[in-house]
Each structure stands twice: as structure tokens, then as C-alpha cells.
Amino acid sequence: MAKRKSLAADPELDSDGEDASERSLVDVDFDFFDPHPDVDYLALKRLATQLFQGDAELLHVNDLADLILSQPLVGTTVKCDGRESDPYAVLTVLNMQVHQNHPSIKALTEYALAKSSADPAFHGALQNLLDPASSSHVGFVFSERLINMPVQVMPHMYRMLTDEIQWALDDNEPYNFTHLLVMSRIYRLSPEEEAELQGPAPRSKRQKQIAQQPSSGGVYPFHPEDEQIQKIALHSLDYNFTNTKPREENGFGLDMGGRMMLVPAARLRELVSILQNAYPPPS
Fold first, then answer.
1. Is there a domain that residue 4 lies in?
2. pLDDT by residue (tens digit) across 54-101?
3. Structural domain of residue 250, as residue ranges?
4. Which residues pair with 89 in a beta bridge?
5. Rounded to an integer, what distance in angstroms lies between the CA atom of residue 61 and that of residue 243?
6. Residues 6+ apart with CB under 8 A from 197
7. From CA 100, how far away is CA 97, in angstroms rounded?
8. What is the dihedral of CA 232, 238, 239, 245, to 10 degrees?
9. Would 42 be classed as within a structural domain?
10. What's the structural domain count of the chain?
């Protein structure tokens, strides 16, 4: 049975051009479902492509979607129109040791090692953890959602994931992780673009949303919860996508990149509490 939760959709994420102050919040019922092989495959591929952008083909997103759907008792999708509708968000975890020979995990391991080479400490940690002979078990956390999904769904999703991992362990399933590898997305703004956002001129709703998000040297997370995950991460690294064209001067669009974070699995339940405090449901 689905678990239902009502949240207020964020009008800042609308695209109709109206100022957010002139609109009221809209209550939306979100249903939380297990991944469903018969209905979620195409949507999971789209979300994986959104997550990895131009590098998606390198990471075998077709096989990745299949692997996610092969373990429907761990992981959650969020839908608004019943089980048969497309998910708006997904959160799950895959054991990179158990599935080390699966095409998507093999490609993901090579990708993570290549991108982490810019940070020797991070790279060395991943090399040791992802070595086929290692006794450690790294869980790849796959988390992605549509842009208009409020961050308030994430504490609930992470809480359910934590519970499902424990239930799987109680059944002797291979989810006894030592570490979690979280992969996410960032975008970069030039100093001129940041100055424009902070200036007195009227801004669009999307610009206001960007201006309110945490920034580090012009780098912004697509997922606000990344800031909370970084607080407990052993390592965090922002990187450039391999297959992307540099944005031309005065060009449209965002200068996008990826982010990797390595988290001790023992702190997952602590992360749930952090997220619940940071992103409580609207009153």
C-alpha cells in the first residue's frame, strides 16, 4: 500500500512568469511506491539521463534502470497520479561490490575513479573501497527528481530507505554497507551572473530560487539536501562532465557538472534526522 504525504508545492518552481508573492501554495498529495518493473523503466532512464547529462551513455543507463527495478523492495518512487503513473522522484541504493560485474556498476566504478583522480585522498579511498578484493561494501545512492519536486520529500524518502535497508539486513540480504557513494549535480555561475542575481533589479522566480540556494565560489547544488549530506561526508568533489560543450560567452543555459560525496553508512540514520530538521514539512 502506498504511503501518502501532503506537501505544499513550491511556486518558485513554476514557469508561468507570475511573481511568487502573488501566488498561494498548492497542496499536493504525494504517494510513495516501491519501484515497479512494469511501469517505471522509461522514467528511471530519463531520470538517470538527467542526473548524468551528457555522460549518461557512458554509464549504461538502460542497464542501470534494469538493476534498480530488479530490487523493488529497497528504494522508493514518488508519484502523484497512482502506481501506474511516472515517478517524479526516486531514491534507492545499489551494492557496488555485489554487482561489480554488472555493466552499469562496472562503468560507474570506472567513472567514479576517473573523476575522483582530481582529489588524491578521495581517489585513494575509492580505490581501496571498490577493489574487488575489498571486504568493504559501497552503496551507490541513486537520487534524482523533477525540478518542481520540493526538497521536503527527501527526509521521508531517506527515512524509508534506512528502514528498508535494515529490513533487508534482517532477511540476510546484501545491504550491510560500510560507505555510501552519493552522486548528484551542480551548476556554476560566473561572478557577473551572481552579481545580477543579487542586484536590485526585478528577478524571475528561477533567479530568486538560485539566489536563495547555498553557493561556494559560484557553485550551486541542484539538490539543496547536498549541503546537509556534505556535513557528514568523508569526501566531496565537484567535477566536469566528460561529454559536454562549454557554454559560450553570453550563451543561454547553465554550466553544469557533477558532484560525488562519500558518506559513512553508519551515519545514514543521523542524516535522516539532519534532513528532517533542515526540511520540515510545510505547516
1. no
2. 999 999 999 999 999 999 889 999 998 888 999 999 999 999 999 999
3. 91-278
4. 78, 145
5. 15
6. 189, 203, 207, 210, 211
7. 5
8. 140
9. no
10. 1
